[in-house]
């Protein structure tokens, strides 16, 4: 069956991260949502997403297509229910479409175009940006079991202090003179990932391919550090999508960073209000601050955004795509895409300057800022102009 992962009505609630990717390309746990479905099904997937993203994330159509909501985390029960769908049927939970067996070629995701089948079992869905870190422990546990079942870890070098037995090292992973505690959750080190000396890691924790933890870091789970990222300092319950750096001392808690982000030395974020009230966060879909219902909620930073040394982010701060933040004091709780400045004032970050920065950073990871990437950022620059 040809699997297509579609952007559902949660897409706008997951901005700024879904400005630059389909919903199913979000990382939570160890894998992206797309990678989870591919591992579970054994099939390749493609995306039904926004037109301006479709060139980078192309769609593959066949005569029969199985459409799956990109915000849904897979599990075995849900996958069996999807496999049991007949042509022209849609699996729904309440008014939420989960999956559909399309044979018309129209790739509709509207329940009115199908015979609906109710699904009553529990499942997990990424409905809001803060779900990415809130559900990270559940996703990390599931991914760890999926990836390590029936396999043997590479040996853990001597000289480390090990607590628990749920630690898995892929080929080429390194860890030296560090403390790894997997009694609170599994610890996964991806291919060629490295934990430098003196680090203290309390699971659940995933360090993805080619990523590194720098000297003396303190990490509390559930935390995910995506591929080709570098982290240091103190981190608690965070998800870093990939290719981003928090390489120095400073605290990052209950936060999500996109790709190609960089936090300057001694950057800190607050994840708890002084009055212990639940945190409000900017919501792009509703164009206002919304109550997360969470007591702990930190920083949401979109792709290509950066901040200078000693930056302080207040509780519940949202930073859009390709912002450049610096200066003393707390910047606003909502920083629009392509903004330049900080607490004093924000001006527009010229697109040519933003593109030049993106080119330089991506070159450091041997990735091209090609025409497709430029077109995506140009489109985001255009559609977010009203926010600035």
Protein described:
This protein is 16% helix and 29% strand. The mean pLDDT is 96. It is globular. A hairpin with a 2-residue loop joins strand 5 and strand 6. The protein has 6 helices and 37 strands. A 9-stranded parallel sheet has the order 10-13-16-19-22-25-30-33-35, covered by helices on one side. Strands 2-1-3-6-5-7 form a 6-stranded mixed sheet, covered by helices on one side.
Structural class: alpha/beta
Mean pLDDT: 96
Low-confidence parts: none
Q: Strands of the biggest beta sheet: in what spatial order?
A: 10-13-16-19-22-25-30-33-35
Question: Strand share of the residues?
Answer: 25-35%
Estimate the helix proportion, in percent.
10-25%
- Quick one: biggest sheet? 9 strands, parallel
> Treating each run of at least 4 consecutive H or I residues as one helix, how many helices?
6
Shape: globular
Total E-strand runs: 37
Distance between the termini: 44 Å
Compute the gyration radius: what is it? 21 Å
List keywords for this structure.
388 residues, alpha/beta, 9-stranded parallel beta sheet, 6-stranded mixed beta sheet, 6 helices, 16% helix, globular
Brief overview, please?
16% of the residues lie in helices and 29% in strands. With 388 residues, the chain is of the alpha/beta class.
Topology of helices and strands:
Layout: E1 2-6, H1 33-41, E2 45-48, E3 65-69, E4 72-73, H2 76-83, E5 89-93, E6 96-102, E7 115-118, E8 124-125, H3 131-134, H4 136-148, E9 161-163, E10 167-169, E11 174-175, E12 179-181, E13 187-189, E14 194-195, E15 200-202, E16 205-207, E17 212-213, E18 218-220, E19 223-225, E20 230-231, E21 234-236, E22 239-242, E23 245-246, E24 251-253, E25 256-259, E26 262-263, E27 268-269, E28 280-283, E29 288-291, E30 299-301, E31 306-307, E32 312-313, E33 317-319, E34 324-325, E35 334-335, E36 339-341, E37 346-348, H5 351-364, H6 371-383
Parallel strand pairs: 1-2, 1-3, 5-7, 9-12, 10-13, 11-14, 12-15, 13-16, 14-17, 15-18, 16-19, 17-20, 18-21, 19-22, 20-23, 21-24, 22-25, 25-30, 26-31, 27-32, 30-33, 31-34, 33-35, 34-36
Antiparallel strand pairs: 3-6, 4-8, 5-6, 28-29, 36-37
